[in-house]
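Hey team,

Sharing the Zinc metalloprotease run so nobody has to redo it. Sequence (457 residues) first:
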Amino acid sequence: MNPESLAWYAGAFLLALAVLVVVHEMGHYLAARACNVKVLRFAFGFGKVLWMRRHGSDGTEWAISAFPLGGYVKMLDEREGEVPSAELPRAFNRQSVGRRAFIVAAGPAANFLLAIVLYWVLFMHGVTELKPRLGLPPAGTPAAMAGIGDGVTVRSVNGKPIETWQQLRWEVMQRALDKEVLQLEVISLQREIGVYRIASDRFDLEQLEKDPLRLLGLVLFRPPLPAVVGRVQPNSAAALAGFSDGDRVLSIDGKAISEWKQLAAVAGAAAGRQLAFVVERDGRQIELAATPRMTEEGQHKIGRLGLMAKEGKGEAFEMTTEVSYGPLESIDRALQQTWDTSILSLRMMGRMLTGELSWKNLSGPVTIADYAGQSARLGASYYLRFLALISISLGVLNLLPVPVLDGGHLMYYLVEFLRGGPVSERALEIGQQIGFALLALLMAFAFYNDINRLVSG
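Structure output:
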């Protein structure tokens, strides 16, 4: 990755971190102020303080620290130092169980609220989405065995209306997780309506980090495209071979190539084998040699060159649709999307704990930075959608009943409410040690997965 791309990805990641962390901590801060609890510091990041200013009647310190993966709101508390008698009513530990729970829960609630607002804006503004049109399924896949043809458009999945490819992906993945039989209502190119039943018992949870629809044979329809390169992915096999944007592929190993699907088929079947290309560039014919890199897709190993096709306005119109809703319907859809995403996140975490889902699906900061950069390059709507998704994940994670997380504190307050007295200091100390150990283990898994993805490509 060149320095310019690295700076772009790092900037997109840091901006996402700043927004998500500040929103989360602002939830705690505003709730504390509403309960008249004194806030001593509002910090973005941990470690050495790089910048700090005092503001407000309470002289709250607003700080930016060196390590940006998080933040905190420090409140007046007798457990962390001596509190003047005149300010005891404003100490956090002197508040009722209900008020303390409200302040703690406000952080994750702010993340969910951010996601709702972002989805609401996106649904109202309108987004360009891929149409839910299916290409010819690969032989032997459940979709191929069901008899799905090329170019059909999905209208519903198990009775749920479908308007975009993203909605199709979402509905299929949720049902396939429970091995449900998928009932797809489609309309053909001849405007004929058909219903197909697809067994999802072959849905491999180990392959979730790949394309979950392709595992079932549900592939995106692509209109015929000329074999012209639209973009060469950095550090790819094609980039190393010297391909450039705008190259027209004329032949591979002496075989004439006219359509992009021919190029993709040859490259896909040649993982690890060098191919001889003849391309046309600026009116000249050039010979290039490239070796497609082997990648796993479900149970299959295929070759990837790292080339993207050049699409004209006609192809884009045929593949995309503009989706927008009114203000009220957008709110309803935003609430539903946030709820569905939260529940799916919990289900995925639960399956990781039971061993049904591999821990390799856990992502760390490197992978998140990659997604941040990719979504930012695609445009504002994609980046805002990415922010909404990560904000939901942050909210769900913080509500887990793990000591040191917000959910762990809420668990303590529930115990205090039920038994009529606070949890002992010894129990809090042990819980904190367990919580830090669990978080360290979680981060170790996440970093390992990040490194593994970088090494394996």
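Residues 194 and 225 are 27 Å apart (CA to CA).

Ping me if you want the raw files.
A.
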